Amino acid sequence: MDAKTINLPDLVDATNHEQIFNSLRPKLAELCPIQPDLQYYICISSGTPAMHACWLMLAASGEIHAVLLHKPDERMLLPRQAPIREINPYTRFFPLICGLVESMIFKKRFCRNPSAAKVICGKKAGIRRNNT
Predict the structure, then answer these.
(1) pTM > 0.85: yes or no
(2) What is the DSSP annotation of 83-106?
(3) Torsions phi, psi for 71 (to 5 deg)
(4) How far does Cα 74 stand from its chain's mean position?
């Protein structure tokens, strides 16, 4: 397995989600081309909380096809807990994250007033109600 480090020299503010996305996307296209016979693994443990959020959104929306891994600080490990764990953004514990086109379709189908609804609409009725 070849390990690669993604460096983002043009990233000025590692807490700015928009800058992170704009820096990550070209690197991902270069380092992780979509190939059906390859499985990519991305360890998201290093970096800022904003970077973690970007990795989760990219994976949950399907923009990147990779297994996300997290290596918690050893002091935080419980007895017999694996030192590395997979983060699955498709479990019921994560909100539904859609791309722009999918979110527009979702709003038209499920939100009472699609023009006033925010783009992020969760699966639970209470969340949808608060976003309309």
Answers:
(1) no
(2) SSEEE-TTSTTSPP---HHHHHHH
(3) -115, 100
(4) 24
